[in-house]
Design a protein that fits this description.
The chain is of the alpha+beta class. It is built from four helices and eight strands. It is 33% helix and 27% strand. The chain has a five-stranded antiparallel β-sheet. Helix 3 (98-110) packs across helix 4. The longest helix has 25 residues, at 2-26. The N and C termini lie far apart (81 Å).
Length: 187
């Protein structure tokens, strides 16, 4: 039983080392890359033969066994280049001036310093929702590690610009129908 346990442990260590060799030689992962592993986003700070360390957005270090890079799907946000496309979605009330909404969304992104100017941001009219007209603004950033902060700043700007221009963001609405039965009164 002890030898079986040791054999299984050695098998995983061998997979980690083999994964580390693949990572180092094929350069599928580099120090500084921003990756997503099991729902956690981190910036790679160290690649070793058996493990890779990444710093999360919460300033915590996650240690990832290298075999995970071979066996699982890993998102590498910066493998192809440093800029990534991000988006913010918002709903506006029916009857809103949609051209004005489009311009205000573009203005909200133009206010941000961390947004890449080229390619330019774009606005899509996504859908006629249940209680709102749904728009998404797409933009590019050079540091997707801090994109939650950038998106938050854009949302603050959208809220301010919409209030200044009387564009409302509706709450979900539901129609409720009540049916009552006639209950005979007691004697």
């Amino acid at each position: 039983a002890l030898l079986v346990g040791v054999g299984l442990a050695l098998q995983e260590i061998f997979q980690d080392v083999l994964g580390g060799i693949f990572i180092i030689f094929d350069k599928s992962l580099l120090v500084g890359d921003i990756i997503e592993v099991e729902g956690k986003v981190g910036r790679v700070i160290d690649i070793q033969l058996r493990t890779t360390r990444a710093l999360t957005r919460d300033d915590k270090v996650i240690i990832i066994p290298n075999h995970k890079f071979i066996q699982n799907t890993i998102y590498n946000y910066t493998q192809n280049h440093k800029t990534t496309r991000e988006s913010v979605t918002v709903g506006v009330a029916y009857g809103s001036d949609i051209q004005k909404v489009k311009q205000l969304l573009l203005d909200s992104v133009a206010e941000q310093n961390d947004i890449v100017k080229n390619p330019p941001p774009t606005v899509l009219f996504n859908d006629f929702g249940d209680s709102a007209l749904v728009f998404t603004i797409y933009f590019y950033v050079t540091d997707s590690f801090v994109d939650p902060l950038i998106k938050s700043n854009i949302r603050f700007a959208i809220d301010r610009l919409f209030r200044e221009n009387s564009i409302s963001i509706p709450s979900p609405q539901r129609d409720v129908h009540l049916y009552t039965k006639n209950i005979p009164e007691s004697p």
